Amino acid sequence: MKELKLVNDVKSSYEAFHGRSLVVQLIPAVGIIAFAAWGLGPLLRVCRVFFLQKNDDNWNKSKEHRVMTSYIQPLLLWGGALLICSTEPVILPSASSQAAKQRLLNFVRSLSTVLAFAYCLSSLDHYLASFTQAARNNVLLAVPALLYAINNYLKLTMQVLVM
What we know:
This protein is an all-alpha fold. Helix content is about 85%, strand content about 0%. It folds into two domains: about 1-90, no CATH class; about 95-163.
């Protein structure tokens, strides 16, 4: 009997959203942005404690926190912004206003792409600068460290280009 009530609740929820296609289109985008803003950090923190058995006291200094805030979070926010831009919320009456809306959406897509990847690359640049500073302190390891950093940068660039 409870399964039937659950099915009816899901069916009525679907029917309520069915007429509002804009809401249905925006739910995944808003969900991704909300997860990136408020859910990703706590999830990774719990996974770090549970799976890696690491202490929670130094979370802000951990490499997991740095990777999350420098790479994963901006890319999730960028993906959410692109999903929002992909919706067609309003059909404007004239062709010129429709073209203006399309230009604005293209601008927002481009701006969010540039900002997300600029943030990721600036984080990578900061990491490489600190890495090379540490390599300078140990001169014998400077050349292999530099080659390793270049290799990692090329891998990241190739991954970004494949997306």
